Amino acid sequence: MRHGNLQLVAGNANPELADRIADLLGIERSPARVGRFPDGEIDVQVNDNVRGNDVFIVQSTSPPVNDNLMELLILIDAVRRASADRVTAVIPYFGYARKDRKDEGRVPITAKLIANCLVVAGVHRVLTVDLHAPQIQGFFDIPVDHLYAAPVIRGHFADQQLEDITVVAPDVGSSKMARGYAERLGGDLAIVDKRRISGDTVEAGAVIGAVEGRNVLMIDDMISTAGSITEAAAVVKRLGAKSVRIAASHGVLCGPARERLRGAPIDELVLTDTIAVDSAGLANLTVLSIAPLLADAINRVHDERSISVLFEPRAEHEKVAGA
After folding, report:
1. By C-alpha distance, which of 247, 216, 251, 252 is closest to 234?
2. In whole angstroms, what is the distance from residue 309 CA to residue 295 CA?
3. For a 10 Å CB count at each end of the chain, is N or C smaller?
4. pLDDT band at 202 (very low <50, low <70, confident <90, very high)
5. Count of CB atoms within 10 A of residue 78's CB?
6. What residues contact residue 156 under an 8 Å CB cut-off, 6+ apart?
7. Which of 194, 237, 242, 319 is the catalytic position?
8. pLDDT confidence of residue 303
9. What's the CA gap between 131 and 222, in Å, rounded?
10. pTM confidence score
């Protein structure tokens, strides 16, 4: 069942990514005005007719998180009230994902709260990339398509034809992801034993696995304050790594992240454009675009075709990098 014409709307979080997606879809992005009232409240108007159409709203809930989240919710409400037939929230980076369970007394589960807010706002479907906690899919009572940036990042490193690769997980939590990269790039796996001292300070200890004389790839889903990954990079370099490359799907880069990355012994920092990245001061930065992956997924959702092929290890986007 088709849901009218495909339309793409975007908030202020990452309009460049939305434009890349629109170009690949062969459509114009529907213009929307997202402004502010004098007191800071968000004011939205979509300037295209959306009645009866299949509307995809592209908006990462990246910093400033609260502003971008409210923009998304209000855009959803606007197109629903304008009689869109179906509304899909395309959230390349899903914020508020760290609190996915009650791990101590009197704390919220904010990931579930945001899921509730999106559903109440009127979204029919969510399309996202590399959730910080994959179980967040289960917090929704609507379809959630959870894509992975791994094929794009793997393709970039495969093109470099590196030898003697060791993929290093900067902590135990990212070991499953690192193992997948190691298997598909033909490398070894190592894990850094991390101890968190405070919210933005960590201490990297022993490395489980061999890194001496190896080209090290450090993989994580996101880089926030960059404490874990830069400390781990310093450790593997002290242990004799030949080179160190860091990659993550989401470059949040808040607080002291840029200073830490500039001072870290890394040869290349690889991020995707799920979040708009300011390259200032990061001379070794490579930004890969996930627009082809998202455009393909949007096309498949619109045409009511399966998108499970995009979850496969050898998806057609495996070699897409920097498109």
Report:
1. 216
2. 14
3. N
4. low
5. 22
6. 247, 270, 286, 288, 321, 322
7. 194
8. 95
9. 10
10. 0.92
- Our answer to whether residue 194 is catalytic in this structure is yes
Find tokens 């939205």 and name the residue. Answer: 44
Distances (CA, A) of 289 to 20, 151, 209, 218, 277: 9, 11, 31, 19, 11
**What pLDDT score was predicted for residue 198?**
53
- Characterize 192-218 residue by residue with b for buried, 16 or more Cβ atoms within 10 angstroms of its Cβ, and e for exposed: bebeeeeebebebeebebebeebbbbb
Residue 83 pLDDT grade (very low, low, confident, very high; cuts 50, 70, 90):
very high
Per-residue confidence at 204, pLDDT binned at 50, 70, 90?
A: low
Query: What is the pairing mode between strands 268-272 and 285-288?
Result: parallel
Burial of 159 (0-12, 13-18, 19+ CB in 10 A): exposed
What residues does 34 pair with on adjacent strands? 44
Residue 188, classified by CB atoms within 10 Å of its CB into exposed (0-12), middle (13-18) or buried (19+), is: middle
